[in-house]
Amino acid sequence: MFLARVCPLCNRPGLVPCDACWTSLDPAPPGPVPALVAFSGEGARLLKGLKYGNGRAVIARLADGMSLLVEPCWADVVTWAPTSAVRKRTRGYDQAELLARAVARRLGVPCRSLLRRLPDSGPQTGRTRAERLNGPGFAGKRQAPPRVLLIDDVVTTGSTLRSAASVLRMMGAREVRPLAAASTPDAAWSRTRRVPVTSDFAR
Ligand SMILES: [Zn+2]
């Protein structure tokens, strides 16, 4: 597949995205899931391109930055919160998987498919906040090693990663650390303080 070496934000040829656009992105807001950029403005445009358009060339640069947010040598394995099989077929790829594979290569850690998304859980986009907080269903595919780095492209409420992490723990993981390319500021999260998510992930 040919990936045009053109910045998806300003159309300048070269790096994807170019240095000027890359450094202008807002960093991810503080939250329970470490992430690289804020899912707002140009950061959202970049991630939406990855999700819905031909923006796969941005994977390398995102993975470079994401791998620097991780304690080196910590993880036994890198995995991802998979999209549904139907969406992967429609889109031709799973963007969380591409990010996980690229991050794993940079960390020198194996990348394994450990989870399957249950077919009736549907995509997160377009669901109400209450629906999203319940989280999609996952099933474990195989035994998980003790320390798992769990990748997703965009984290909003964190429910997807919470569901995925709990299944990984049932499959044998002692500690699951989440990592996303982008996260969205979610005011309701800090207002309600419904779950101590950090400790939930750390368990
Ligand atoms: Zn640019």
Describe the structure.
- The chain is 38% helix and 16% strand.
- By secondary structure, it is of the alpha/beta class.
- The strands form 2 sheets. Strands 1-6-5-2 form a 4-stranded parallel sheet, sandwiched between helices.
- β5, α7 (159-170) and β6 (175-183) form a beta-alpha-beta unit.
- The longest helix is centred in the middle third of the chain and has 13 residues, at 95-107.
- Mean pLDDT is 84; it is low at 187-200.
- Bound molecules: zinc ion.
- Zinc ion binds next to α1.
Report the helical percentage: 25-40%
Report the order of strands and helices: HEHHEHHEHEEHEHH
By secondary-structure content and strand pairing, the structural class works out as alpha/beta
Strand percentage, roughly?
Answer: 15-25%
**Mean pLDDT, as a whole number?**
84
Overall geometry comes to globular
Number of helices: 9
Oligomer: single chain
List cofactors, ions and other ligands: zinc ion
CA distance, first residue to last residue: 41 Å
Number of strands: 6
The biggest sheet amounts to: 4 strands, parallel
Q: Stretches where pLDDT falls below 50 for ≥5 residues?
A: 187-200
Summarize the structure.
This protein is of the alpha/beta class and 203 residues long. The protein is 38% helix and 16% strand.
Chain-wise SSE layout:
Layout: H1 19-24, E1 35-38, H2 41-52, H3 59-67, E2 77-80, H4 85-91, H5 95-107, E3 115-117, H6 129-134, E4 138-140, E5 147-155, H7 159-170, E6 175-183, H8 187-192, H9 197-202
Parallel strand pairs: 1-6, 2-5, 5-6
Antiparallel strand pairs: 3-4
Helix pairs in contact: 3-5
Zinc ion (ZN) binds at residues 7, 9-10, 12, 17-18, 20-21.
